[in-house]
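Tutorial sheet, problem 5. The two components below are modelled jointly, 284 residues in total.
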Amino acid sequence: MIGLNHYLILSGILFAIGLIGVLRRRNLLMLFFSTEIMLNAANVAFAAISSFYHDLTGQMFAFFIVAIAASEVAIGLGLLILVYKKENTLDLDDLASMKG
Amino acid sequence: MFEQIAFYFFSVLTIGLFLVAVFSKNVLYAMTSLASGMVVIAGFFFLVGADFLGVVQLIVYVGAVMALYAFGMMFFNVTKNLKEKTTSTGWVLIVGVTAALLMTLMFLGAINPDAIYASLPMSDKMTNPEAVGMALFTKYLVPFEVAAVMLLIAMIGGIVLAGKKMDTSLTDIKDEVLQLKDEE
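Model answer (structure tokens):
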């Protein structure tokens, strides 16, 4: 039988994958992808908890996370396009302009 | 039985697809596997009975967000492989997994699972979309409206940011001309 713990462990694994992506990748677009993975991992945990405790609140929270993710992508991609037009690269090492 | 098979099948699929999304050298491969991973995540939502959330996941994530990424990708040169100086994978793996574990332990210590009670209990009389609608338009009406305003602001922000100087392609202009334009 699949219990709540199965879903929570899966969500933890997915979140760890996203976190590894954020830490490892240097391309801004890949950082965005990793953020989406982390948001999705949280959503899975919310939906599972909501179903196993017979409570709708988890699902409502997941809806707002989806809304936030959508607006984050809209603004973030606009900024990425501006950065790319200005610097012609999305690599964080090339974008670093501050010495220190 | 069916639930177990579906759960393990979906788990292996999502973990694999997201690993490809994170470690792939090609942005297009990463985006495609991310999109398919999102579809499988919707499968989890259907599995736990959150039907409406699953449909929203399919429409918003797989439909809107991935289409937005695909459109954004037309501005970037994605045909060649990414050449990035990556931090050592082992180190990052340790940091990532410990951070995730620490977060889990933190909440595990703070939350007593026996003391949790349902503030919005599900009833058997209503289907999931009905119950979600009832909750969204009564208890969560204000957050719902605030989220609507936030999406509107995000839309305007996206248009303003990406639509700036859309009539000329800045990548084709010589640097000297660009500097002159900036000084104007």
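Marking note: Chain B touches chain A through 81 residues (CB under 8 Å). Full credit if you identified this.
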